[in-house]
What does this fold into?
Amino acid sequence: MTMVHLFFLHYNFCPIHKMLGITPAMEAGITDTLRNMSWIIGLIDARAKKLNKPKTYRKWQK
It folds into this structure.
């Protein structure tokens, strides 16, 4: 299901469509800038869970 969401996000915000001359999101008035894949990747990274790294590490004991 996530791939379908990514497809629609890309379809509506990234390419300029021949019939409209702009993206569907621009036509709907959602945005006024053309987006690219790095913007989508930035959205994914912003929503990703942060790792819980310990502040200090214990030394390995044999």
In short: DSSP finds three helices and no strands in the chain. The chain has a mean pLDDT of 86. The longest helix spans residues 2-13.
